[in-house]
Specification:
The N terminus is likely disordered. The strands form 3 sheets. Strands 1, 2, 3, 4, 5, 6, 7, 8, 9, 10 and 11 form an 11-stranded mixed sheet that branches. The chain has a 4-stranded antiparallel sheet with strand order 14-15-16-17, with helices on one face. α8 packs parallel to α11. The chain has 19 helices and 17 strands. The protein folds into 2 domains: about 550 residues, Alkaline Phosphatase, subunit A (3-Layer(aba) Sandwich); about 45 residues. By secondary structure, the protein is α/β, with parallel strands linked by helices.
């Protein structure tokens, strides 16, 4: 079975060598294609309007790829870096749905309806504001809609997570052809949910529920479908917008065995050693300043406190993670190769990025572990060492390796520190004036929508769209930066606020104030120069009290203007997700089993205490 899904593993240097050659010649379009280009181009799309490919990884860490200092060779992504600009100071929201909403609309998450994933929004917030839904509102218009209106083909293949009722699917938000997985995540080998939040994995094709092929593996399937979509209209002369939001490397972390085998033993030294290695590599590449320091993260455990068997298991979990990155890169390469082979590459702009920092949740921990173990057992998931990563297995890398995946940044997904928000981003193509360079310009998720529209020559809506009021895009186009006309996207005195589930930040110039709630965060506000100190190792709050006070006032203004609601007392994102399970998808059998076991444990504890009291009396 495994041999049937190796997909011809490429040599690591082939794509890079081809990238160097691409600029030397252009492949001509087929004669039929050229004739159709003249005859059928939509009136408001120029003949040379570029194709745009937006590739979104899921939960990918800052240094998980080779251009950023990662140990996983990623030749396809490296080839894009050679043909474009590698951004070292790009920020997304720290969770998937808020990022996706802002990415596709250019509108802040507190105005577009997606301030958090719907599964984690407490009823208190949902009842108080119509913006707290976790699904895209009707007050925003997607770039897919605007590009389609302008004459572009618009395709999506991948994770959506912005609504799964018919009117909320991507087929109703501007995408002409779609394959959409509508949930937070799903299994990568078969059509089944990955957690009890869902009764089934919600996969849709062009707005209708679909089944998956027998040889399904998510990264391969999503690229297969995108190539199919592009090929179906290739000869009509219209440009296309292609949105490929991968499931990789969201949990469950899974990869073909051939990819896992390449990384066995590579992580035996543990997360602290990995974090240090990536720091040094990132320094060498110029991704971070040479004096960057690592800040301690409370959730990181002591590697040496684990037994040899536990270390062996955790090392393999990370090998599966690396294999999943490798497999994703391979399939990105297949898409690039297809565009080369069909003469479309030279007129295509590529944007590669991640929706947030790496996942740090350890699923089987805390009070919910028993329920989840029972759910896994009834849904065909195993955590056996020998089969980790393959069909039927469940893998998460946990908080310690999660933080190492973001090295040298601090924290990971959900947190407003840099590890949760700063992610890789590469923009490549003929639009880029100087290729193969790094940019340390601060950029933000809402910048990408206006950038994509300007690349396409399409104006964003101002105030209204098709007779209804819509929120205006707040980001700045990065096109002047791509063309070498400026070295920054935002002015030094411009502020950008951010909040998600009580974790918050405000950016201004080179400075950032940030707070993360407990139990991992300390609930206090801190001030960092996130340009010179991306590891957030030196808190400047006491040294720069006036700046801190100004920025705190700036955040209060942001929270007021964008209608940010406080989280309820005692709010915990993981607990809220579990409450969502109990409200929306309770499993009576599992709940009764867990309740029975809990009562048994309490009874045994009571009997034990009673026996102790009797012995003391005796």
């Amino acid at each position: 079975m495994e041999k049937a899904i190796l997909w011809d593993l490429p040599d690591d240097g082939g794509l890079v060598r081809r990238a160097r050659d691409r600029r030397r010649h252009r492949q001509s379009l087929e004669v039929m294609g050229s004739l159709l280009l003249i005859s059928s181009m939509a009136s408001n799309v120029e003949a040379d309007s570029p194709n745009i490919v937006l590739i979104l990884a899921d939960d990918l860490g800052f240094t998980d790829t080779a251009p950023y200092g990662g140990e996983v060779p990623t030749p396809s992504i490296s080839a894009l870096a050679e043909q474009g600009i590698t951004f070292t100071n790009h920020h997304m929201a720290a969770s998937c749905a808020p990022t996706r909403g802002m990415l596709l609309t250019g509108v802040d998450s507190h105005l577009n309806g997606v301030p958090n994933i719907p599964e984690a929004i407490p009823p208190e917030q949902a009842e108080q504001s119509s913006n707290y839904r976790g699904t895209l509102g009707e007050n925003v218009v997607t770039i897919a809609t605007l590009l389609k209106d302008a004459g572009y083909h618009t395709y999506m293949s991948g994770k959506w997570h912005l609504g799964k009722t018919p009117e909320m699917l991507p087929s109703r938000r501007g995408f002409e052809r779609t394959i959409a997985m509508a949930d937070t995540g799903a299994d990568n080998w078969e059509k089944k949910p990955y957690l009890p939040m869902y009764k089934k994995a919600n996969w849709f094709g062009d707005g209708k529920e679909i089944d998956l092929p027998d040889d399904f593996y998510s990264s391969k399937f999503l690229v297969d479908k995108m190539i199919e979509f592009i090929e179906s209209n290739r000869l009509d002369g219209k440009p296309f917008f292609s949105y490929v939001p991968f499931q990789a490397v969201h949990m469950p972390v899974q990869a073909p065995q051939a990819y896992i085998d390449k990384y066995m033993g590579k992580y035996d030294g543990g997360w602290a050693a990995l974090r240090e290695r990536r720091l040094e590599s990132a320094k060498t590449l110029g991704v971070v300043p040479a004096d960057t320091e690592l800040a301690p993260v409370p959730s990181t455990e002591d590697w040496d406190s684990f037994t040899d068997e536990e270390k062996r298991y955790k090392s393999k979990e990370m090998a599966v993670y690396a294999g999943m990155i490798d497999a994703m890169d391979h399939h990105i390469g297949r898409l690039i190769q297809y565009l080369e082979d069909t003469g479309q590459y030279d007129n295509t702009v590529f944007i590669f990025t991640s929706d947030n920092g790496p996942e740090g949740t350890e699923v089987l921990s805390g009070a919910r572990a028993l329920y989840l173990r029972l759910w896994f057992a009834t849904h065909g998931y195993s955590m056996d060492y020998e089969t980790l990563g393959t069909r039927g297995s469940f893998v998460d890398i946990g908080p310690s390796f999660g933080n190492a995946a973001a090295s040298p940044l601090a924290y990971y997904k959900f947190f407003a520190h840099e590890g949760g928000m700063r992610v890789p981003m590469i923009i490549a193509g003929s639009m880029v004036a100087q290729m193969g360079i790094l940019s340390n310009a601060f950029t933000y998720v809402t910048d990408l929508a206006p950038t994509i529209l300007e690349i396409a020559g399409v104006d964003p809506p101002v105030g209204s769209y098709e007779g209804r009021r819509v929120e205006q895009m707040s980001g700045k186009s990065l096109v002047p930066l791509l063309k070498g006309q400026t070295d920054r996207a935002h002015e030094p005195d411009e502020t950008i606020g951010y909040e998600l589930a009580g974790n918050a930040a405000l950016f201004r110039g080179d400075y950032k104030i940030v707070t993360d709630r407990g139990p991992v965060g300390d609930g206090e506000w801190h001030l960092f120069n996130f340009v010179t100190d991306p590891g957030e190792a030196t808190d400047l709050r006491e040294q720069m009290p006036e700046l801190f006070a100004e920025m705190m006032e700036g955040y209060r203004s942001y929270a007021r203007d964008y209608e940010v609601l406080p989280v309820p007392d005692g709010y915990d994102q993981r607990k809220e997700v579990f409450r969502y399970v109990l409200r929306n998808n309770p499993d009576p059998l599992l709940l009764s089993v867990v309740a029975g076991l809990a009562l048994l444990i309490l009874f045994l504890a009571w009997r034990g205490a009673r026996a102790v009291r009797k012995r003391r009396r005796a």
